[in-house]
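cache lookup: miss for this entity combination. No prior model stored, computing from scratch. Input as submitted by user K.M.:
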Amino acid sequence: DADVTQTPRNRITKTGKRIMLECSQTKGHDRMYWYRQDPGLGLRLIYYSFDVKDINKGEISDGYSVSRQAQAKFSLSLESAIPNQTALYFCATSDLRTGGYTFGSGTRLTVV
Amino acid sequence: KNQVEQSPQSLIILEGKNCTLQCNYTVSPFSNLRWYKQDTGRGPVSLTIMTFSENTKSNGRYTATLDADTKQSSLHITASQLSDSASYICVPLNYGGSQGNLIFGKGTKLSVKP
């Protein structure tokens, strides 16, 4: 099994719909992140969490919300999806000791 | 403003050849710099992490260099293989506040042809 698992892998949704992307990890890391990747751009940070009770906004948090249900689970929600949220979304964890990051395989979201 | 510029944007080489990818950054304060490999449709995978005091670091056929004074880094790939076809992303860590932020470059897309 992958260390960081994202579901679904692909999703097509309609404008205005609420959608949740889920992430679970077996790394045992406290720190988890959600990134967005658009063609021709670098990954941009949406939200991050240092532990279950900690949630922080990233560079592009507008239109998104997150929930840290447990150390191993961090979900990203789009309350009312819009077409410019069409992108590849990555969940990641980081090791406080080594600073290393582990990324999931991504969720390709299309909003029509 | 923290920025990362990578060159070239894309590169095509023949299998077995060497290549060097460049990264210039203006991140400050600077903590360390990572190179990631990202296969199409997959998440980035770490190749190297270099602190400001390290000049060179190797991982198999991948060798990264860092000049923290000029804020430049390079990734050299030796004896390329078809499986090296991917995007290579330079990621300096901006050590600000209680947690550093990774600043992702746009990547260099490498295609290795037989």
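stored under new cache key. The interface with chain B takes residues 4, 31, 35, 40-45, 48, 50, 88, 90, 92, 99-101, 103-106, 108 of chain A (CB under 8 Å).
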